[in-house]
C-alpha cells in the first residue's frame, strides 16, 4: 500500500459555485451543510479497496456529540448522516462526492481517509456553514432573492433619526472579506459557553437558535470580553466615536489584532451591524431592524416613566428610557422548541441593555410571539414586547418634596415606523404591522392586556402606577411644536409653539420652555436655551409663538447625534399641567460622490468627492474616510486642507475594483464643526 500522504484537490471553484460561497476569497474549501461537495485525492492504488472517511470538529470529537463522523463509500448519498459516493477513479486517484447532514454542527472540520487497514491520513480542513438554500436546513429560506440579500449582500442601510424625520446611512457588512470568517469562528470559541464547557458548546453549533443567542452575547464586551464596548456618555476619548464607523470589517479586524480586546466604542447600530456580519458570514439569514421611539423598560412592567421638573427639564430619574431609535437584528430560522407558527424571523439584540440568564444577551424572540403577546415564550419576549408596545407615563417631579404628579399617559407613543432595508433595492420597508396590530385598535389593546396578564401585572397592585382618576383627567389646552424651516446643522433652528384652548372659557397659561442637546437615547447632555412666557387664551383660541435658536447658540452644545429635545411645560391656572415636547434630529450638510468613467475589474477608476462648507466660519481638521467591499482593500483615509466660509473642496482618489457586479462605496467626512457626514454610492463594476 502507498504510505505517502495523499494530496487533495478540493475543486474550490466548482464547489464554491454550487454552495453559494464564491464570494469568500479563501484557499480553504468553504461549503454549506446538507449538500454534496466533490474532492479528488491521490495516493490510493486501489480505490475500490475499503475507504473510510473521518470528519471531525471541536476540541474532543466524538460520535455521541455529533462532532465526529466515520463513513465509507455508499452507492447513494445518505439523508441522515455523512456519506461518500464514488464519482470516478483512475489508477492512482479517486473523486468522491461527500455529503453532510442538514443538521450538522457548523465550523472547521478536519477530513481524513483510512485506506484498508492503514492508519488515517489527513486530507486537510474545510469549513461547513448553514445552508439557507437547502429545504432540510433550519435556516432554509424559500425565496432566493431574500437569500441573496440576507446572506450574500455585503452592503446594508441602517435607518436612524426619529419618527418624524427618518434618515438612513450605508454600512459595509463585508462578511466575505479577508479574514472575517476566521474571526467569526474565533468569536464562537471565546464565548462564556465555550469556556465553561467546550464539548457541549460545539455540539450545539448545529442550532441557529443556540448560536444566535451566544453571538448576541459575544458581540458586546460585557461579561465575556466580546467584540464591541458600548459607550453612551457622549464622550469617546480613547476610542472611536460610534457614529464614525462605516463598516464591520475594521471593528472585527481590530478586535483580533489587539489580542481580542473589546473595540471602543459602539452604540446600538454598531452592535446590530457587527452581529449581521457574523451571522451572514456563518450562513444565517439576518437583517437590521430600526424601531423608532423604542422603549427600554428596565423594570419589566410594560410601562416607561419619564420625569420633568416644573421648568420643563427632562430629569434622569429611574432606569426606564425612550430612545429616538434603537437597532436590533432579525434572523430567519425554524423554532422546533415553539412550533411552526413561531418560525421565521426571530429578534436578536446584541446591545447590552438588560441581563438575560445572568449575562447581557437577548433573543431569539419569535417575532410572531411578540405580535401575539405570547410573552411567556423563550427568549426575552417581555423585553422586546415592551420595546415596541410599552405605555408611556409623563410625570412632573418635585425634587424638594419627592412628590410626583402624572401629567399624561400615552399608549400609542412607542414602537413607530419599524424599518428595514428592502430586498434588492436601497429603499426603506416598514414592518411595524409584523410586530403589532394597528395602534389604537381593539385588537392591539387586547394583546397588550394579554401580555400584562401573562406577566402577572394585571392582578398585583402597583403603588408606582397612576390612578384611573389621574389617567382619565382631561387637559384644558393642547399644544405642539411645529418645525418652521430646515433642520440642518449650521442653520438656525426655527420652531412654532402652537397652543390651543379646548374650553369655552378663557385660560391663563404660564409656559416654561427648555431645549437640551441629547444623545439618540434622549439622555440630556447640555442645556442650549430656556425661556418662559405667560399667555391668556380666549375660548377655543389657538395661538402660535415663534422660537428661534441660533446656530452659534447650539453648535458647541450639540452632540454628534445632532439631537435636541425641546420641551414646554404649561401650567394652566386651576387646571392640569400640559407637557409639549419634540425631539429634533438635525441633518448634516450634503456631500457628493461622482465616479469619473466606467468601473472595470482590476482597472483604475477615479472617484471625486465634493463638499461645500455651508457656514460662515472656516472648518478645519477635515478627514475623509472611504471603504467598500471589492472596491478597495481596507479603509482609505485622506486629510483635506481647511475650508473657508462657503468654500467648496473637491478630492479625487483612485480605486481598483477586484470583483464585478453592483458594489457600494461608503464615504464618511468629518471636521471640527461637522461630525460624520455620511453618504454612499452604488458602483456597477464590469469585467
Automatic annotation (TrEMBL):
SUPFAM superfamilies: Cysteine proteinases, E set domains, Transglutaminase, two C-terminal domains. Ca(2+) binds at residues 389, 391, 439, 444. Binds 1 Ca(2+) ion per subunit. Residues 260-352 form the Transglutaminase-like domain. Its cofactor is Ca(2+). The active site is at residues 268, 326, 349. Belongs to the transglutaminase superfamily. Transglutaminase family. This is protein-glutamine gamma-glutamyltransferase. It comes from Oreocharis arfaki (tit berrypecker). The lineage of its organism: Eukaryota, Metazoa, Chordata, Craniata, Vertebrata.
